Amino acid sequence: MAKKVAFMQGNEAAAHGALYAGCKFFAGYPITPSTEVAEVMSAELPKVGGKFIQMEDEIGAMSAVIGAALTGAKALTSTSGPGLSLKQEIIGYGCITEVPCVIVNVMRGGPSTGMPTGPSQSDVMCAKWGTHGDHPAICLVPASVQELFEETIRAFNLAEKYRTPVMIMPDEIVGHMRERIVFPEPGEIEVINRTTPSVSPEQYKPYDTKFGDVPPLAAFGSDYRFHVTGLNKMEDGFPTTKASIVQAEEERQVRKVEANADDIIKYEEYMLDDAEVVVVAFGSTSRSARFAVNEARKQGIKAGLFRLITFWPFPEKQILALSKKVKAFITPEMNLGMCTEVVKGCVAGNAPVHGIFRVDGEPINPDQIVDKMKEVK
Amino acid sequence: MAFDYDKYIRPGKLPHIWCPGCGHGIVMKGLIRAIDALGFEKNNTAIVSGIGCASRLPGYMDCCTLHTAHGRAAAFATGVKMAKPEMNVICVGGDGDGTAIGGNHFIHACRRNINITYIIMNNKIYGMTGGQFSPATPTGAKASTTPYGNPDPPFDIAKLAIGAGATFVARGTAYHATQIDKLIVEAIQHKGFSVVEILDDCPTTYGRRNKYKSVIEMMNELKDIAVPVKAAEKMTPEQLKGKVLTGVLYKEEKPEYTAEYAKVIERAKGAAK
Questions:
Q1: What band does A377 get if pLDDT is binned at 50, 70 and 90?
Q2: Looking at the domain assignment, is residue B3 inside a domain?
Q3: Residue B273: is its pLDDT beyond 80?
Q4: CA–CA distance, A94 with A63 (Å, rounded to integer)
């Protein structure tokens, strides 16, 4: 049987990816350029018995998502820059309480209101450092409509597997572009559901490390009842200020993601085998970069592309290994050097890192990248 | 036989954090009696709070309990209720939590008329942080951040709820302990968003600064200012000066949000066929 094919916008594909993953709840607030995610969810969720609610603000939307997720539902919200800033308080709450959920953040210019209709890649640091306190961070940065669909499914899978909020951050170009998409059949892409308790309700503790770094999560309204708080907590979910427990719990919350970086990190290597100049790029910028690599090869430059699909955890090992065999890195991005700084940290001085930065609401042209390659080769 | 509160208290989680003389414990006992009277299953009952002294209440209750971020109880509770409408969802919290930082969530929960009961313990002060003025602190009162007297006018929380669209609004006091459970029972039985404001006392951070000699004086004040709605009908505006109405202040039948959304699902499924 022929697969279902469509010509679809990125944001719409994100919504359909969420539905494929089994999302049954959406809470959001209108914001450009992510609103289409909410619009599709408002139309599609009730058809499958799911719930859509437009909340009074971004904080309320994130709060409702965590509330719904605690009843066992897979829950989604979508937003953009200013909304992501507002949501941060409750994203931190989701991290410490270890509640799976997904945030689609379509990146636009900032700070503040910035350029609401212009593309940007300047929220990637906010994904890791936006909320206060130490916490795990998973952030995915797809580059096409198909990939936005598939990575949204993976975002849910990672949220459920690691019991934590996961962000997926298409830039505005990826969110608003229209491309061909081929829908997988149900069951074709693996869908992961959170581990629920195997012990009796009397024995259940929501943060029982006996079951590893990702303890099973029961649902409100089931046979299990438990306490959830944003305070530092013990394995039974109740607050504590006991130094040894707080230290261990904070470390576990971060470790459950960091120790599984290999499982979470996804990237694409393009023409890297003999590459001397390597572009590290993500999102729509990586499409310009691929074009630039092809152009440069025609001109005799040994260029390659390392395309990030997972931004956090960052592929530190892979970049470090590359840095030992290449002459230079080029890091084009629609911000003033966020990924560049991270890459510099990874290469540990082994090779120079040349950034190309644009924050004028225009995409980075392949020409800009080719010119830089000629300059640094 | 004495009422068995222990049935609803989590083993090992007492003593509570509240100061001697604080009314929050009186409200919690009222809530427990109400839950018992309604025959609610603990597994099917969510108690959701924000941040502050009053918001510590869920931790003591043997239900599904959610101690959220400051001001966000109504928004989290909306998520719980929407995802599982069959659950009984009760919010508890203080005046600052509910009507300052959480004011937006509060008024919109009122507007939606979602079937949640919100119990606001109004002690007119931010107690946990040491006694800063709240949106319920009377003009002129002393707080740690109004050393020259409060220049702000306060909210009338019950009126705020009525104005925002809550379809059941009641007020009681920590003094009138035996009325609390009756008000909560009626609020929960009402289909829609219900608000129960309980006038409460904070001897530690409010009473001390505002020349109350004792908890008894604060409790006596609650007794003296409270006028039941029925009795108020026969009183002149002059007689009602400085008084606060108690009992069921407002009640109307309106479409409830989760029931309305169930119709959305039916319409969407119909359209999909």
A1: confident
A2: no
A3: no
A4: 9
Question: Closest chain A residue to B61 measured between Cα atoms?
Answer: A227
Q: What CATH number is given to the structural domain containing A366?
A: 3.40.50.920
Do residue A170 and residue A57 come from a single domain?
yes
Classify residue B175: in a domain, yes or no: yes
Is position A189 within any domain? Answer: no
Structural domain contains residue B4: no
ipTM over 0.95: yes
Contact status of B68 with chain A (Cβ, < 8 Å): yes
- What is the number of CB-based contacts under 8 A between chain A and chain B? 138
Cβ-Cβ contacts under 8 Å, B81 against chain A: 67
Could you tell me if residue B50 is inside a domain? yes
Looking at the structure of chain B, the number of domains it has is 1
pLDDT at B196 over 80: yes
**Minimal Cβ distance to B104: which of A27, A57, A239:** A57
